[in-house]
Amino acid sequence: MILGEIPVFDPPYRLEHPVSGPAPVLFNSPHSGSFYPQAFLNASRLDHLALRRSEDVDVDILFGGVIEQGASLMRVEFPRAFVDVNREPYELDPRMFSERLPPFANTRSLRVASGLGTIPRTVGEGQDIYRMPLSMDEALDRIETLYKPYHRALDRALLTTQRRHGLAVLVDCHSMPSAAVTRAEHIQCDIVIGDRFGTSTDPAIADCIETSLRTMGYHVARNRPYAGGYITEHYGSPHAGVHAIQIEINRGLYLDERRLARLHGFDGLREDLTRMASELIAFVGQELQPTYLAAE
Question: In the prediction, which pLDDT does 1 show?
């Protein structure tokens, strides 16, 4: 089954910088894309609302204030259910396709097993997306035209930042279902910070974010149940001056999870995240950056 020509996303992502020139901090929202191609909707057994349940609804808006604080902000235009950039390039599920997958495909990852590969098989509570199998050409087209341009741009932005400032800090921004945290931790957690158990960033960066959020009254956890995905693991290289950390926001803080509509707490949460970003940017510029520049 071929859905047809991939819709033109020009480009498939947006990367915005502050007018005054960016600080060495880049916020990234890889799962907030909300344009659903009509051919994709037609091919799905699910309705539009059901497909959106895997989307990090409005996370790009929640973090939109970071630009005014001096950070850059990157976000995708296409939905996670169509292509998930927080995966390896070829994490593919053989059950989805009408042909045999190429030998370079990773078919055995835990993410593939759960239906959440680069081309997801399921959304929400394990609901199958497609009516019929996809062609391999369909998957490769999405990876070549959407996934790879996004990662080339992100890699280029981090490299440019690191060369200009001595270091780069990537904050990968997500939202999590409220029920998922309750099941995993048996408590109500507002925000989870993931740094791959201390391997993807200088611990001082995670400490700065956690302290800022706890001071504002949020319940914050580290690495459980979310330690950071492919983006955090792939780009986080503290020894090379590139730090990556993931932030998961409990959707119950700002979203009616059934209707995917904003709650009254949305604006207050946005203000708090903007304040956290301001404190992080100041910390990186005053405490970390001089150390990295002196070492060069």
Answer: 42
- Could you tell me the two tokens for 20? 């005054």
What is the 8-class DSSP label of residue 23? -
Q: Locate 52 and state its tokens.
A: 């959106």
- DSSP 8-class letter at 2: -
Residue 7 carries which DSSP code? P
- DSSP letter at 145 equals I
How high is the mean pLDDT in each 10-residue block of the chain (296 residues)?
Answer: 57 93 95 94 96 96 97 97 98 96 96 97 93 95 96 98 96 93 66 98 98 98 96 97 98 97 98 98 94 78
| Contact (Cβ atoms closer than 8 angstroms) between residue 26 and residue 170 | yes
What is the per-residue pLDDT across 221-272, written as a single tens digit (0 to 9) for each?
Answer: 999 999 999 999 999 999 999 999 999 999 999 999 999 999 999 999 999 9
Sign of the C-alpha dihedral computed for residues 47, 257, 188 and 65 taken in this order: positive
Tokens representing residue 230 in the block: 């492919």
**CATH fit for domain 13-80+146-295, picks 3.40.630.40, 2.40.30.10, 1.10.3720.10, 3.40.50.1820:** 3.40.630.40
**By three-state DSSP, how is residue 13 classified?**
strand
> Are the beta carbons of 66 and 3 closer than 8 angstroms?
no
Sign of the torsion formed by the C-alpha atoms of 260, 262, 263 and 266: positive
Q: What is the pTM of this model?
A: 0.95
CA 153 to CA 96: how far, in whole Å? 29
| Rounded distance between C-alpha atoms, residue 78 and residue 86, angstroms | 13
Hunting for tokens 């301001």 — which residue is that? 278
